[in-house]
């Protein structure tokens, strides 16, 4: 039994009212869900790569679709969001339906934020954005993020069958993105026992099933466990504050254009190693969820088993940018259980850059 310090400390928990429909083949109930919300002219959103999937799903929706906009892109460029909103206006959309990963759900949120249109999400990665009130918008290379209840999807349909096409590499890094939400939720400054339960279960589900998915992408049972873990991870991401890991990843993704999910996969073991001495209870939970004796070692082993990227260098970071990255990461820092200074973050980034297996 791992001690639960949160109980004695007291806490606040906010439950959010998203309707979740989960299951293999759940996509077949999407029409009913749209009808349930009383929507008749829904704007379907997708990336260019997932346009065909979106069209196929839209065609089964009994004439409740107003149009398809398939230009969603990473980090929600403001001009793309503006065009999508204009198109929503043109077709008289009464709701938006995002089919895809965090980028597509992010576009749906940008529409919901400005127009108040209800959003329905069909997530096809493990990013977890569909469970949060966090939105982001990028203009002139600067990503602005905020929280607003209006962007939270009214309904989320999770169908593991839609994730079998996610490549092993993306499954691995997207899965690590989800695990990172859960790990940081375990030591969040505003954490609580309910979030702790969900976070630990999320790591258990993802840690157990991701290696199976990478070996056999069509294993629906393993895909179901991963999507379940991702749902829980998204829920805790939306419920509590994230810490150093997310700050570093936002800096690296936002300013140096590193790929989102892959950055999470590289950075997590390094931040976990750094924070571990300050958060023994959280680390005991991570270890228990992964079925190992040591959390940091367990995360590294999992990363290797998934063949996830292990250095910032291999995902496009330049050595000459490490100083600036460290500088940015310590300006307006997120709350973190272990205090840090610029030199410590520079050293952490150096380790992550080279992929060296060095502890805190
Ligand atoms: P993504 O949405 O950018 O998708 C990556 C690529 O994979 C795209 O080409 C997409 O079309 C494709 N893809 C997605 N699902 C697929 C599937 N099942 N089969 C085949 N191809 C598929 O990647 P992501 O990692 O899901 O999202 C990253 C973005 O989400 C970032 O901008 C990040 O900031 C944001 N995000 C936001 C939150 C939040 O709470 N607001 C949370 C997590 C991530």
Ordered list of secondary-structure elements with their pairings:
Blueprint: H1 5-9, E1 19-22, H2 30-36, E2 42-45, H3 51-59, E3 65-69, H4 78-90, E4 95-100, H5 102-115, E5 119-123, E6 134-139, E7 142-147, E8 155-158, H6 168-186, H7 193-215, H8 220-239, H9 244-256, H10 260-275, H11 280-290, H12 295-305, H13 322-330, H14 342-354
Parallel strand pairs: 1-8, 2-3, 2-4, 4-5, 5-8
Antiparallel strand pairs: 6-7
The structure holds nicotinamide-adenine-dinucleotide.
List the keywords.
Rossmann fold, 14 helices, Dehydroquinate synthase-like, alpha domain, 360 residues, 2 domains, alpha/beta, two-stranded antiparallel sheet, binds nicotinamide-adenine-dinucleotide, globular
CATH class of the largest domain: Mainly Alpha
| Fraction of helical residues | 40-55%
Give the N-terminus to C-terminus distance in angstroms.
26 Å
Number of domains: 2
Average pLDDT, rounded to a whole number, is 95
What percentage of the residues does DSSP assign to strands (E)?
A: 5-15%
Strand order of the largest sheet: 1-8-5-4-2-3
> Count of helical segments?
14
Query: The CATH topology of the largest domain, please?
Result: Dehydroquinate synthase-like, alpha domain
CATH architecture of the largest domain: Up-down Bundle
Low-confidence stretches: none
Order of helices and strands: HEHEHEHEHEEEEHHHHHHHHH
CATH superfamily of the largest domain: Dehydroquinate synthase-like - alpha domain
How many strands? 8
């Amino acid at each position: 039994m791992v001690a639960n310090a949160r109980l004695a400390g007291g806490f606040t928990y906010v439950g959010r009212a998203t309707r979740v429909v989960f299951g293999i083949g759940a996509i077949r109930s999407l029409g009913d869900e749209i009808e349930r919300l009383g929507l008749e002219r829904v704007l379907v959103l997708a990336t260019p790569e997932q346009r065909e999937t979106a069209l196929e799903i839209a065609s089964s929706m009994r004439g409740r679709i107003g149009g398809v906009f398939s230009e969603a892109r990473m980090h929600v460029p403001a001009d793309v969001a503006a065009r999508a909103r204009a198109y929503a206006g043109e077709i008289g959309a009464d709701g938006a339906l995002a089919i895809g990963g965090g980028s597509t759900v992010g576009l749906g949120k940008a529409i919901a934020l400005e127009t108040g249109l209800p959003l329905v999400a069909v997530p096809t990665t493990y990013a977890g954005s569909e469970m949060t009130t966090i939105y982001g918008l990028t203009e002139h290379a600067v990503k602005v993020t905020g929280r607003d209840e209006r962007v939270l999807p009214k309904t989320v349909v999770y169908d593991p069958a839609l994730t079998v096409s996610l490549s092993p590499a993306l499954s691995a890094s997207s899965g690590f993105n989800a695990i990172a939400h859960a790990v940081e939720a375990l030591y969040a400054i505003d954490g609580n026992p309910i979030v702790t339960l969900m976070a630990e279960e999320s790591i258990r589900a993802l840690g157990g099933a991701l290696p199976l998915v990478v070996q056999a992408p069509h294993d629906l049972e393993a895909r179901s466990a991963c999507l379940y873990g991702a749902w829980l991870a998204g829920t805790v991401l939306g419920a509590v504050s994230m810490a150093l890991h997310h700050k570093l990843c936002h800096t690296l993704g936002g300013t140096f254009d590193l790929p989102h999910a892959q950055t999470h996969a590289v950075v997590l073991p390094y931040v976990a190693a750094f924070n571990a001495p300050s958060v023994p209870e959280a680390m005991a939970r991570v270890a228990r969820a992964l079925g190992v004796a040591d959390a940091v070692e367990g995360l590294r082993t999992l990363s290797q088993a998934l063949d996830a990227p292990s250095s910032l260098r291999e995902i496009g970071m330049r050595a000459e940018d490490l100083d600036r990255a460290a500088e940015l990461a310590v300006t307006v820092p997120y709350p973190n259980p272990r205090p840090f200074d610029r030199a410590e973050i520079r050293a952490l980034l150096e380790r992550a850059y080279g992929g060296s297996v060095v502890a805190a």
